[in-house]
Amino acid sequence: MIVLKENNETIVLQKKLVELEKLLAQTKKKLHYEAEYNKQLEAILKEEHPVKKSKIITIKSATKIEFVNVDDIICCDADEVYTHVRLNDNRKITVAKSLSTFETLLEGHDFFRISKSHIINPSYMITLYKDRNQILLQGNIVLDIARRRRVEFLKTINY
Length: 159
Prior knowledge:
Blueprint: H1 2-45, E1 56-60, E2 65-69, E3 73-79, E4 82-87, E5 92-95, H2 99-105, E6 112-115, E7 118-120, E8 125-129, E9 134-137, E10 141-144, H3 147-156
């Protein structure tokens, strides 16, 4: 009787061991898939497979949401807690967002922050006044370039 009970316990333990081995195999398989997925995400983050940036951004003002082509933006100006977005059709959109929000939004679109108050689209540059450390943009917009950003700015425009 004792031998029979031990055999039953051994059989039960063997069945549980087989179940645990199956679970272990499934877990290893899931971990392998997760590792592959993480490698793909890291590759995207390292821009081995560049993500296409949209040319259209949404700008939410107090009364409406506007869809603006990034290429139409001349510059963005900080004004305390607001940002003024100037467009090539002489419109100005005022938004209750910081300039750093727009810096992040326009990242990868060849914009340059020339000072703590201004981000410009170099495509709209007309004249660089070296002696005054200023830049003239389309629409007669004259902006100061911060001294500490001047060297980096000149490098980006291949001066």
